[in-house]
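Notebook entry, cofactor series.
This is the third protein in the set we're modelling with a bound small molecule. For this one the ligand is copper (II) ion. I'm keeping the input format identical across the series so the outputs can be compared line by line later. Sequence and SMILES below, as received.
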Amino acid sequence: MAHLDEEEQREVLNRLARIEGQVRGLGRMVEEDKYCVDILTQISAITKALDAVGLKILDGHVHGCVRDAMVGGGKEAEAKTAELMEAVERFARMR
Ligand SMILES: [Cu+2]
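Returned structure with ligand:
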């Protein structure tokens, strides 16, 4: 479960819809045999946009799931912290 309130969820979905449009545009650029560097620039823009969505989700997770587990304490808090660090490492390794 993602800890996003209604407005945040709407914002994330809007951003993802924009990214879908950007990816479709990328497909058109390849189809139309556009200049390689322009295609790479577009890929960078999409990657950045997707990163921003990832950070938003991560922020919600820390302020939701992780905080709740910390309040509860015990083994659940330890497990959530370990899981969080693994997720952050995976996210950081992407770039
Ligand atoms: Cu979460």
